[in-house]
Specification:
five-stranded antiparallel β-sheet, 13 helices, 7 strands, about 15% strand, alpha+beta
């Protein structure tokens, strides 16, 4: 594969060149009450919204575009700021003790978030091609193994266009202790040609790191690049229920891997993901995946099953690692404020 990767340079280059007020006391539950492993009900923390961007100037606490963008729907944002379909839009979130701290975390989280989205796009395509016989299972597993190692992406040229924050007090349900937190949302606007370069750079790393014995042809690469660009231009829009499910499943994946060494993290993630796939099955799962969970031998195989569910909450959770702890905290807090 190291030798043949250069044969794909023309395909990747072609994609790039184608350009293809008063203080609020509104409160809400940070996370829904849930059941612990022992069956006991765990009370949810409460959040109290105290301040937000431009509040003193009469700014809205929840701009019309913010909640849809959080779910992956950027149509309202594009309409408000006059952006055409040729632009890719992304939103990154993080928390901090103050606005500056949240800004620093959000900047760091963005490259990780982009890598995760590219990973999901590659894995979903590879899983589907494996299902149809276009590539063999070993190659599909190898692709998913390699993408696990890509923890960040090249984001040169991604413009941070909009920033919005919420300042909240979070009340611990067990102790009653109040903690001040800032939730920051950063919206990035990326021209299609710039996003194509991001895609090409990521994909060259993935294909270049495949084992020598695993090969994919130019038709596969061309189709993969096209699908990655399509996924970016028209991202999956989740319903509120699906987003809640994504965060629930992501929490389970994170909890399964916490404080474990790398290999044990993979084993724990595999076991947790198999349970999530079973729980998140759709009608498509029953007819397409049709896999026996007890036969899953690796995290890569479990991720293939997750991709074939057709459930975006499951696919998203499949790539969660301990590095996503800050992201998940911010997502849960934002969920409590926006809905």
């Amino acid at each position: 594969m190291k030798k043949s990767i250069f044969g794909f340079t023309a395909i990747l280059a072609a994609v790039v060149l184608s350009g293809c007020g008063s203080t609020s006391n509104v409160s809400s539950a940070n996370t829904k009450a849930n059941m612990s492993e022992s069956g006991m009900t765990i009370a949810a923390n409460k959040t109290y919204l105290r301040d937000w961007t431009a509040r003193s100037l009469g700014g809205e606490a929840r701009p019309d575009w913010l909640a849809p963008a959080f779910l992956g729907d950027f149509s309202a944002y594009k309409a408000k700021f006059g952006l055409g379909d040729e632009y890719v839009v992304k939103v990154s979130t993080a928390t901090g003790a103050d606005v500056r701290g949240a800004q620093m975390r959000t900047d760091i989280n963005y490259a990780r978030m982009v890598a995760k989205e590219l990973q999901q796009s590659v894995n979903n395509y590879a899983a589907e091609r494996s299902r149809t016989g276009a590539i063999d299972k070993a190659t599909c597993d190898a692709i998913e193994e390699v993408t696990q190692a890509q923890s960040s992406a090249e984001i040169t040229g991604h413009e941070k266009r909009t920033e919005f924050y919420h300042i909240v007090d979070e009340e611990d349900a067990a102790t009653g202790k109040m903690t001040r937190k800032v939730v920051l949302y950063q919206v990035y606007v990326i021209p299609a040609q710039t996003w194509a370069r991001t895609t090409a750079t990521y994909l060259k790393k993935v294909l270049g790191d495949l084992p020598e014995e695993q090969t994919v042809d130019e038709k596969f690469v061309s189709g993969l690049v096209g699908q990655m660009m399509e996924d970016a231009r028209h991202p999956t829009v989740m319903t509120q229920k699906q987003k809640e499910q994504e965060l629930e499943y992501s929490g389970k994946m994170l909890q399964a891997q916490v404080d474990l060494e790398p290999q044990k993290q993979k084993d724990a993630a595999q076991q947790a993901l198999v349970k999530i796939v079973e729980d998140g099955k759709t009608e498509r799962t029953k007819t397409v995946a049709n896999a026996k969970t007890e036969q899953v031998k690796s995290l890569a195989e479990a991720q293939t099953m997750a991709a074939l569910t057709g459930n975006p909450a499951v696919s998203s959770a499949a790539t969660v690692t301990p590095a996503d702890k800050d992201w998940l905290e911010a997502q849960n807090l934002a969920m409590s404020l926006l809905f």
